[in-house]
Hints:
The complex is a heterodimer of chains A (823) and B (234).
Chain A: H1 2-14, H2 16-54, E1 60-65, H3 67-75, H4 77-80, E2 82-95, E3 105-111, H5 113-118, E4 123-126, E5 134-138, H6 139-144, E6 154-164, E7 172-188, H7 192-196, E8 200-206, E9 216-222, H8 228-238, E10 242-244, H9 246-252, H10 260-293, H11 295-303, H12 308-348, H13 362-389, H14 392-409, H15 412-421, H16 427-438, H17 440-474, E11 481-485, H18 494-505, E12 510-523, H19 532-535, E13 541-550, H20 551-559, E14 570-574, E15 576-577, E16 587-588, E17 597-602, E18 605-615, H21 620-623, E19 639-644, H22 645-648, E20 665-670, H23 673-684, E21 689-693, H24 694-737, H25 739-747, H26 752-792, H27 801-818
Parallel strand pairs in A: 3-8, 5-7, 13-19, 14-18
Antiparallel strand pairs in A: 1-9, 1-10, 2-3, 2-6, 2-9, 4-7, 5-8, 6-7, 11-20, 11-21, 12-13, 12-20, 14-19, 15-16, 17-18
Chain B: E1 5-16, E2 23-34, E3 38-42, H1 49-57, E4 64-69, E5 72-73, H2 79-89, E6 90-93, H3 105-115, H4 122-132, H5 147-159, E7 165-169, H6 177-193, E8 197-201, H7 205-208, E9 213-218, E10 221-227
Parallel strand pairs in B: 3-8, 3-9, 6-7, 7-8
Antiparallel strand pairs in B: 1-2, 1-4, 4-5, 9-10
Amino acid sequence: MKVIYSLAKKNLKQNKKRTIATSIGIIFSVMLICFISTLLVSFQSSMLTYIKETIGNYHIMVVNTNAEEVELIKNKKEQAGIQSIAISQTIGAADYETKRDSKLGIQVEAYDDLALQNRAIKLLEGRLPENKNEIVISDFLVSNANENLTVGTKITLNVEKVKVSDKYKDLLEPDGEEKATYTIVGISKQTNEEAENQRAYIAITKLEKIEEQRPYIITILMNNINNADAFGNVLQETIGNVSVNDSLLMWQGAQTELMDKKQIELLGLAIIIVVTCISILLIRNSFRMSILERKKDFGTLASIGATSKQIKKSVILEGIIYACISIPIGIILGIGIVLIGISGINAISVEKGFTLQFVFSPITILVSVIISIITIYISCIKPAKDASKVAPMEVIRQNQEIYIKQLKHGKIKDNKKYKEKNDKRKIEESLAVKNLKRNRKKYLSATISIVISIVLLIITTSTVNYIFQITDEMYPNKYNIDTSFYSDAFDIPYKEKIETFEQISQLDNIEKYSIYTFFTGKIKRDRNVLTNEAYNLNCDINISIYSAEGTAFNKYLEELGLNYFDVLNKAILVNNFKTSYTSVEEIQLTNLKEGEKIQVNIRDKDYTFEIAKVTDKYPEKLLQTLDENSSMKMTGINAVLIIPMEVAKTIDVENSKIVIDGMTNMRINSSNPNKLEEDIEKYINEPKLNIINYSKMKEDRENMTNLISIFAYGLIIIIGVIGLTNIINTITTNINERKGEFKILSSIGMTSKQLKKMLRYESILYSIKAVLIGVIIGLLIAFIMYLIFSNSYELTFYIPIIQIIIACISVISVTYMGARVKK
Amino acid sequence: MENNVILKCENLVKKYGEKEAEVYALDNVSFSVSKGEFVAIIGASGSGKSTLLHIIGGVDKPTSGSIIINGTDITKLDNDKMAIFRRKNIGIIYQFYNLLPILNVKENITLPCELDGIKPNNEEVKELIKTLGLEERKTHLPNQLSGGQQQRVAIGRALVNNPAIILADEPTGNLDSKSSEEIIKLLKLSNEKYKQTILLVTHDEKIANEAERVIEIKDGKIVKDEKISNSKGK
Ligand SMILES: Nc1ncnc2c1ncn2[C@@H]1O[C@H](COP(=O)(O)OP(=O)(O)O)[C@@H](O)[C@H]1O
Ligand SMILES: [Mg+2]
């Protein structure tokens, strides 16, 4: 046993070049497997944290429920496999005046311990409430309050309590009033409940004693996550108001219809499988060559009495030594790369509030180790068997017959042939070609590794290029900041919104901007106003009313030969329209002239506008604001009236039941979008303003793509390097095996110069062959990818010429240098 | 005399090829060797000497016939059993030494012991190395040695387990005459000193004359088997 171990160790030491190359291969694959699995686990755990922090740590939530139903659920605890039930109750609400007109007061909610823990309260300051006189409020309330609210502030509220109606469980009834003084002990990020509540802020206190008459919200955690969905359905049918936390369930690993997690896992698995296969290929080749080179030694060992088991063990021991050295290094490197990658990803911060945390998972490490061990085992088991099967006779005979054999199958004949034919080819070349043909199998795995690296290189560069092309297409290039109000900003009057935009337009770093807003209105069916054609449509005519301000609007005015003062308090009428999307024919709307007045009904109110200009020119560019290249084409189905923003502000849409928000927005082309975004947040300070920074998004996406491509290039380079060492190994093995042959060649008069030339031809010929195959396969796959991508995106086919040239040069030069013989 | 027989070959036949290409490398060869005998096997090139030695060494199998070494019929052993038997009972010396290039002189010599899981006796090994004249080369690797020195290492390796029989196939075939002499001297020495049984294949008459008994093979048959009286021993 000892001698076998020392044989294995000595052999590894003897062939340092190969040992290092093989170790690098193993380290790299272990590293990659560890990296991917740790990243997956970290990502999953981070998603869980993120979901728990934003949505909450529960599987099922039941809102607006009552004591009776809660009792019902509690009774099912055992039977349904409920792990825990967290309870909160609405105590009541108190009037509380803030800067925000829509929020009328503060609603006091009492959470029990579990609810405080599980219901996504993200404290920014202070602590959670510990008794019924302490509350946590949101930063949103703090920023909107008229007074200065901080941790420690006491506020007195006149709480109108509520109870669930006896008749209808969804109905709340007043339940007396109570003056209560609360101490603010914590400030949290705005909770989902508050964001969704249209009338009140929410203060969270501690539920000390359950009061059965008050409405309940309960959240349930299940023992078995796979039962959550079914139990949720049961509750929905019997009680109602149930929501299931699908994303938590998905990331906890339940069987759900959501696919994100599975897709990510599949991708990870696919990469691991590819890496494992490549590793097996490379490591096995390294072993195979090492065994081939030592065939004679194995024969000798057998002849002096080593059993086949002992020989097999010795080779497997080499694998074990590789494993012992390479796996720990690979694991450490893998974890290191995860740490670097995570900080890289966090620096880019794809989604606000989401941070990727590193999770050290012993099981993942164990799985990586096991996969690596299996990889090494599979790689060395066949070569080990081959080694153990070497019969002593082979060695003895080989020694005696090598010269004769070489002479028989050898080159002398070729030499003659060459002379007879008087071929243009030199002898070295023809010998090289013949050798390649003879050694095709030996070169196979080296060839495959070159082919794989080149294919991967082409695929990766193409993919990266396509992602950049798609990224370019995905984001508008005429503007980089898009601001609008969130759809829940009902409370902000229309006029205020426009004024907010106008304030923004005063900030620095704005090159161009455009504010625009949109209503629909009607023109009454009136023979005096409408043309005959329009009148004959037999209905009121819909008219789109656009209002704009900024660069694009000014340009439009310019096109119409107008200036700002011409349209002050007036309107521009686009007089022609189509009756349907498909109709070709356009209809004239009115016979009105410039200077006349048009009456439009907007949300049941009549407005009269003086017409500054009647035109046929559809304001396409205005509607696309700054994005002149947008593929969106306005069809002009409606008649269009364009009014200046000053006029639009006078339109009373505040009490309309129809939500028009989201159709008011401002697009900016900023010279420094990130600074502008900061300034807007700082100076405008409007939490319901949604700022989309396309430039940053694009940057983030490009950074992400770059990060991924660095990773991918790293993979390619290392596979490439292993491929190249593989080639050198193959060449040196081949040279060692053919020493006898070389002796004969030189004995028949081949100079060592010619010999070297022959070897070089050989190496170059076959590396060119491998490169060619790789390039062809790679381009083919890249083209198929292009076809698939170009279904959904406008792309130009990309050939990574520079990368291909670099790959060719490095492969050929390395093989050229690798083909060296000493004597 | 009979119970002193260490090797007994009976009706050994080794056939290569089929039908027209049929070659009988060994054709019904029978002989026995007693303990402590130094036998030279001679014959022209292609007469079947190596084949005979390989079959006796168990690295090749006969087409028919039996070989009994120390009471064991080795033709009935499978490869692994044969390997174990070989490292305990047979030492083989080849024309091309066949040393392991990664092991040094001492390690190469003690390899059969190690394979057997036996700690070699340090004193004995030291003595052996001294006898072989390799004391100063103990830690050298084979490629740092001359051909003659390498062959001495191979002899050491064959001797280390104190085998029942040593088989040497033209051990001097690759050496100059001075080295050849040394090798033969060594073999003779071990024959005398350790009472080793030796089967030496050679086509050199002069070398054959150093042995106590000469077996001549021609076309796979024994044509002559005689004791030489001029040898020093008996
Ligand atoms: N593997 C083999 N296949 C076919 N014929 C063989 C093989 N090995 C040896 N022979 C033949 O057997 C005969 C004896 O060979 P060998 O024992 O090597 O002779 P020697 O060692 O006396 O020179 C020769 O004719 C040789 O050609
Ligand atoms: Mg021979």
